[in-house]
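User: Fold both of these, please.

Assistant: Here is the first one.
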Amino acid sequence: MTPPRSIRDESPDRLYTVTGGRSRATDADRFDLVTLVVAESGPAPGMQSEHTAILRLCQDAPTAVVELAAELRLPVGIVRILLCDLLDTGRISARHPRPLDASAVPDPDLLEQVLVALRNL
């Protein structure tokens, strides 16, 4: 999906406008780079174009914050501010990926064998 032209404009004035002059999100610590975001509702008429783009990107599958920033071509800090707006209105939910269970981690010997096999290719 190619972002709309207005999202690509990274001039300081545009970024200031996108965030409403805010330089920090209130709950920015809730969104690290790998936090998964899911749309809980669709875009509303009159909604800011960046908010709409985020909701559309997250409607089919959980999407990481870093992926949203890359798709929108916006700095991660700006995306975090926008995500806080959406979270405050209940339009998205956010969760961290599940940590790996210790028993789910492959055996180091097996990983070594795979590495050797890849080098032999």
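And the second sequence with its predicted structure:
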Amino acid sequence: MLELLREVGVELPDGAGLVRFGMTPGEILELLPSGRVTRRRQCMGLTLSQYAELRHAHDAWLGGLLFEPEWSFDAEFDGVVVGFGGGGPGATDRLARVEIQARSQEDGPGVTSTPVAWEDIDLFGYPATEIVAVLPGADAAPDDPPPADMTVAELGLRLSRPKPTADRWERVTLIGPRSGEWGACCEGGLVCAEEGDGLVGIVY
């Protein structure tokens, strides 16, 4: 089981250890079994100054598309891929975001061999509507399916799936308790927005 711990980090499966917010990339790599680590190549993207609105840049950061060379690695644990990200421009040296992506299994989309738990709630193991109904702080209309992307701010969670009609969540992002501070490098605050453009990365 991979357990998400509020304002703490993630307990990795198979006794690999606890990844805490504020750790450096090197400290995290020491915890990860070498055979499970994949180095990723970063693609080119826009510079931070080229974003029409800073809220779009923040959405790119939440979506794991921020260009952070130190964090260009992830780890796979039996059906889930765990990615890591720093605090954004000017604060990349410390972990501020953990993203867990479910790989499709033969049992169906979103069903994984490794449960991803929030206080014993398997976020990928049940239909999205059932998760929203029991997840503290989740707000959705009871008769409508949850949107494709949903943020539960008080828990520091962002849940997403390819489209609203998909049965289960396929990605969850756990955000560190001080993750908003990465916007201090820029004038004004960075705010998540439904219209945010997270399709391009940021080179800074």
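The chain has a mean pLDDT of 84.
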